[in-house]
Design the sequence.
């Protein structure tokens, strides 16, 4: 009875706040060069350097392989850093408290950050594909391009969940360090910089422990370069990782 | 939707015998608080008295261990209840890279019938700032933006936590004017402040909190009356120690040519001073301010607590 009396916010106005929340989140991150530049530049730059220029005579197979894996490397960043560091900062500086005191729909905050991370993933994916198709002479069917794009955009979500959890646990000072410790070794151990077959056998055995490995296998499967595992199983692992870390983060936020 | 109180007023928000502990620290120890429409309630207390926790409870940021917290008759955790409030917190942590206009537009979208942007700009004094990045503004300008965000949804209840910290005198006066206008329109305002003259200038009712409990509440004159004392200053040749022994004089101290007397009432003392020293000059009489009352109230409460602990 009471709720109806007070809650006169029409549905359209509510939807508008979801859109504006996402827009603000995206603009805020885009205008922070310390985040936007590494995110949008690093993966394409490494790809250009190692995949295209210093190809080492491995031909288009290496260029294709690295298109898939640097795509994964690229989309990990907005998930981990965009969610993790921003969340730790918002928590510490009191912005999260202000948002929670204001009548902000709780889901709007989370969805806004997810939309922001997916936007960045889309941008990284488009930049990489453009480089591969032009300078890298990679040949892809439109369907493969689309599937790779979709993999990148959806693939950001498990890393959003991990980043969110880190952001709820560590301070704004510690979060970037923790994320870097996670990000760079995981990229290497999951075979994103060079195929696992070129690394000691132990690394290949441990690889299924890293979420990045599973996403890379899905992206490689699109290009026919995966090591033959089940795509559905990889997707299931990523789904489970997302669910577990979102759940943990929610519990921590509810207690805060 | 709102709870009727025994004295007939309508409470927009209330705390009833609320307890909250952080580990071993008892932040709130059975506090009662009520805020009504069309009144400005100032919550005063020393640092660590429990003001911030009390506000956190009413905003749904903190959960009570025991007792009842109500916002428009609902739990403050309910989004519907919070649609009736506006908030200005001590540390806003607003992202530096967002523009003032973007922040205002976003915050307005949380409410059903927000104020127009032009109204917000006029009330908070944001002329020419809409296109500026929040991080590029001065401290005072940022406070004004926060105030605009707090009032943009036409809240029925406004929470202002130390709203004028860092503002110059003129900006403070502008903000006070806006707050008075809102109260006159029927908005309830809960204000915490370190500036007692701010509470003196704005508050209809004052609640003094200490050690997680309300130690005094009432109008500003009523709180002042807790300390029934007058300060008398004059230049006189009379002996300060002798004056200190006069009836109803609490203390008399000489500072160079001037004597300062603290007494329960002024009239009898002044009459006797003038009679004993016809050459007396520069006579001043001052009543105790809110600041004196505040110090006295929180000191007595602390002594009580200390005595209680010793006895226990």
Sequence:
């Amino acid at each position: 009875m009471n709720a109806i009396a007070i809650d006169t916010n029409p549905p359209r106005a509510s939807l508008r706040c979801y859109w504006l929340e996402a827009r603000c989140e995206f603009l805020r991150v885009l205008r922070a060069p310390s985040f936007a530049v590494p995110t949008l530049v690093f993966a394409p730059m490494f790809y250009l350097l190692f995949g295209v220029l210093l190809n080492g005579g491995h031909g288009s197979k290496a260029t294709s392989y690295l298109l898939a894996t640097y795509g994964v490397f690229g989309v990990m960043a907005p998930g981990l850093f965009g969610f993790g560091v921003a969340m730790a900062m918002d928590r510490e500086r009191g912005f999260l408290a202000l948002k929670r005191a204001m009548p902000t729909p709780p889901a709007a905050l989370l969805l806004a950050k997810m939309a922001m991370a997916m936007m960045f993933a889309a941008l990284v994916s488009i930049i990489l594909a453009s480089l591969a198709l032009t300078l890298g002479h990679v040949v892809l069917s439109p369907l493969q391009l689309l599937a790779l794009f979709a993999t990148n955009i959806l693939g950001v979500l498990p890393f959003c969940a991990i980043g969110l959890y880190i952001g709820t646990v560590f301070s704004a000072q510690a979060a970037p360090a923790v994320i870097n410790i996670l990000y760079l070794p995981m990229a290497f151990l999951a075979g994103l910089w060079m195929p696992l077959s070129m690394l000691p056998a132990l690394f290949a055995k441990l690889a299924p422990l890293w979420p990045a490995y599973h996403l890379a296998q899905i992206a490689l499967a699109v290009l026919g370069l995966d090591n033959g595992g089940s795509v559905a199983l990889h997707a299931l692992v990523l789904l489970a990782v997302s669910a577990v870390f979102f759940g943990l983060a929610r519990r921590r936020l509810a207690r805060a | 939707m709102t709870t009727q109180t025994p004295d007939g007023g309508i409470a927009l928000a209330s705390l009833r015998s609320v307890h909250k502990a952080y580990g071993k620290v008892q932040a709130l120890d059975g506090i009662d608080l009520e805020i009504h429409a069309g009144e400005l309630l100032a919550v005063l207390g020393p640092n660590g008295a429990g003001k911030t926790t009390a506000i956190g409870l009413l905003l749904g940021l903190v959960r009570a261990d025991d007792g009842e917290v109500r916002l428009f008759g609902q739990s403050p955790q309910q989004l519907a209840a919070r649609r009736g409030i506006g908030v200005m917190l001590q540390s806003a942590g607003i992202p530096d890279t967002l523009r003032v206009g973007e922040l205002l537009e976003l915050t307005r979208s949380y409410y059903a019938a927000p104020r127009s942007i032009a109204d917000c700009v006029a009330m908070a004094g944001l002329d020419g700032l809409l296109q500026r990045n929040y991080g590029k503004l001065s401290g005072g300008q940022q406070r004004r933006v926060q105030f605009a965000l707090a009032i943009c949804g036409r809240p029925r209840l406004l929470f202002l936590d130390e709203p004028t910290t860092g503002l110059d005198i003129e900006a403070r006066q502008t903000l006070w004017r806006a707050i008075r206008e809102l109260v006159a329109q029927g908005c309830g305002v809960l204000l915490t402040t370190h500036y007692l003259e701010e509470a003196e200038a704005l508050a209809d009712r004052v609640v003094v909190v200490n050690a997680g409990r309300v130690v005094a509440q009432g109008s500003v004159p009523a709180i002042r009356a807790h300390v029934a004392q007058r300060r008398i200053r004059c230049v006189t040749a009379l002996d300060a120690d002798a004056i200190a022994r006069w009836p109803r004089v609490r203390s008399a101290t000489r500072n160079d040519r001037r004597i300062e007397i603290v007494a329960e009432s002024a009239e009898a003392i002044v009459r006797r001073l003038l009679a004993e020293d016809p050459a007396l000059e520069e006579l001043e009489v001052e009543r105790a301010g809110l600041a004196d009352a505040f110090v006295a109230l929180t000191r007595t409460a602390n002594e009580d607590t200390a005595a209680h602990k010793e006895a226990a």
